[in-house]
Specification:
mainly alpha
Length: about 375
């Protein structure tokens, strides 16, 4: 091992810089507000965690940009995504610390912060863009605030990141390369369609003969069943799916979506376990940020009520509106729509099972 010079804990962590980086604005106008230090430290901590999340996502992006992603890299991708979700849980839990600050505590220094706001968190916007949230998905008010609130150099960094390939786009490319749309000698999607028809037929029978339902409720459930049937038909019809995608109802291509459905249906096979974990981790990333946004919105309402935010937004109402809207992997959430019971899942031919299986036990009776 190479001989190195001694390292001192405080110097290594640059604690001199970090611990002196809290400069309350209120102290410029008299006595410093006690809770402003907490407010600063919490937001500095957020930014440090955002930096780590970007570090993990950038490494995932680098791996997934390869023309071929080896199976050994899949565990690395999933491990780093799981680290992101663990960090996200800390972001959610940290809101409890912020909520120890009362409305009156915040009002002691709030007016000194105008027009600073979370809109100006460049790193969080970079995280969103890296995941795959595009400008066209955002509300008009968000676009206006980004343009007017970010410094020109930060605006350029965000523009550049939004133009770069995202995790969502790389996921779509990766799923599209998977050989699950066609199998030599086996029409899987034909078998899947037959199984779906059988499932819908059973559902129709249950609704039609259910003695608890009155005529109105029965008609409503049968109508919903028709819509479900049309949803399955759209998944399997290239033209219908293209129209669906053009209308913004899905983001993934049909081929990528079919691969994802196949992975979910047969996730117990060893070859598909890690791809399933990656898809599930991406769902978790979206879910954790959705939870964080919601908890943040509730916290803001608790402290500010219906007051306008320091950055000029509608405060709680704006934050609440972004909770559901800003999700990169909504298609993965909706995969459950296309799953069918295990006992109806098409049986795979042996030559396909052999490709997906791994033999761990050589016992022979």
């Amino acid at each position: 091992m190479k001989i190195t010079s001694p390292v001192y804990y405080g110097d290594y962590l640059q604690l001199g810089k970090i611990l002196e980086a809290q400069a309350p604005e209120s102290s410029k106008y008299g006595t410093a507000a006690h809770d402003e230090t907490l407010f600063i430290i919490i937001h500095q901590t957020y930014e440090l965690w955002f930096k780590q999340i970007l570090h993990e996502l950038d490494s995932v992006t680098e791996i997934m940009q390869k023309p071929f992603v080896p199976s050994t890299d899949l565990s690395v991708i999933n491990h780093r995504l799981e680290r992101v979700t663990t960090i996200q849980q800390i972001l959610v839990d940290q809101i409890q610390v912020m909520e120890t600050m009362t409305t009156l505590d915040f009002m002691e220094f709030r007016d000194y912060l105008v027009p600073a706001s979370g809109f100006q968190s460049l790193q969080f916007r970079l995280v969103e863009a890296t995941l795959g949230i595009k400008p066209e998905q955002r509300m008009e008010v968000e676009k206006q605030f980004f343009t007017s609130r970010l410094k020109p150099e930060d605006r350029k960094k965000l523009d550049d990141r939004e133009k770069s390939i995202s995790v969502f786009e790389l996921l779509e490319i990766w799923l599209s390369r998977m050989p699950f749309s066609e199998f030599a000698g086996f029409d899987f999607w034909g078998a899947y369609s037959t199984a779906v028809d059988e499932m819908l037929k059973q559902d129709h029978e249950i609704i039609s003969t259910n003695p608890i339902l009155d005529d109105r409720a029965r008609a409503m459930e049968l109508k919903n069943l028709e819509m479900t049937a049309e949803t399955f038909a759209t998944l399997l019809d290239a033209n219908k799916y293209a129209a669906w995608k053009g209308a913004g109802k899905v983001r993934l291509s049909q081929k990528a979506m079919l691969s994802a459905v196949f992975i979910y249906l047969y996730r117990d096979y060893p070859a598909l376990q890690m791809p399933f974990k990656i898809l599930n981790s991406l769902v978790e990333v979206d879910e954790k940020f959705t939870t964080w946004r919601y908890r943040h919105a509730i916290m803001v309402q608790r402290i500010l009520g219906t007051k306008i935010g320091t950055g000029g937004s509608s405060g709680h109402e704006y934050l609440k509106s972004t909770t559901e809207r800003n999700r990169a992997f909504i298609d993965l959430f909706n995969l459950a729509t296309f799953l069918i019971p295990k006992n109806m899942t098409p049986k795979l031919p042996e030559h396909i099972k052999d490709q997906l299986d791994i033999v761990y036990d050589n016992f022979q009776s």
